[in-house]
Amino acid sequence: MRVVKLMFLLMVIVLLGGCSGVRVNQDYDPVTDFSKYRNFAWKTETQPKTGDIRVDNTLLDIRIRRAIDMTLANMGYRKVIHGSHDFKVSYAYGIRTQLESSSMSVGTGFGIGGGRSFGGIGVGLPVGGATQDEALLIIDFTDPQKDKLLWRGTGTHRINLRLTPEENTAVVNTLVEKVLAQFPGSRKM
To answer: pLDDT at position 188, please?
Structure first.
């Protein structure tokens, strides 16, 4: 039994190491005083449908919402279901397929031989290419009264659609943590 647990732990560590390719970004108005924000609520109860069956998945919605709730709680924010809150949280998640190929290269050559000069130009073009699925997670914090965007965090990473539920949860948790770590009002306790 210990061997199985050790193998599972090793797989999660390797999987999380693969998440180091997460790229994050944020946008907000620098004059906003984020220190006054303490409580949040979800903008909607469930995620709106996108038309992409890879994304329109209630299990994925639950994972992302749990990860956001847990990460914000660890940062010192309190989720409010009924009552007053300082900001609303929403997210958007999408998957796009990217074509990967090497870039075009150009080279020149010159040679002398047999009393004649020779020259040439070579152009290398990619032949075919691989595709890679990339996920984009956008987390928005909005003002509850004005419905004005306060902060937007984004994260992208390559995905593997053939993961176990435990691996999917670990990947989502890491992605959410990295996106929310950028929030300027971070109140880590």
So the answer is: 52
Cα distance between residue 38 and residue 84, in whole Å: 11
Q: Would you kindly state where each structural domain of the chain is located, as residue ranges?
A: 19-97+138-180
Distance of CA 145 to the CA centre of its chain: 28
Q: What is the DSSP secondary structure assignment for residue 35, as one 8-state letter?
A: G
Torsions phi, psi of 4, nearest 5? -65, -45
Tokens of 189: 């306790």
CATH number of the domain located at residue range(s) 19-97+138-180 in this protein:
3.30.160
Q: What is the CA radius of gyration of the chain?
A: 24
Instruction: Kindly state the average pLDDT of the residues 75-80.
Output: 96
Nearest to 167, CA basis, from 8, 5, 1? 8
Residue 9 banded pLDDT, cuts 50, 70, 90: very low
Q: How far apart are CA 110 and CA 125, in angstroms?
A: 21
- Residue 96: per-residue pLDDT: 87
d(CA 153, CA 180): 7
Place of tokens 């004649």: 116
Q: Cα dihedral sign for 132, 60, 5, 1?
A: negative
CA–CA separation, 5 and 71 (whole Å): 25
Residue 55 CB: number of other CB atoms within 10 A? 16
**pTM for this one?**
0.73
- Answer for the pair 91, 141: CB distance below 8 angstroms, yes or no: no
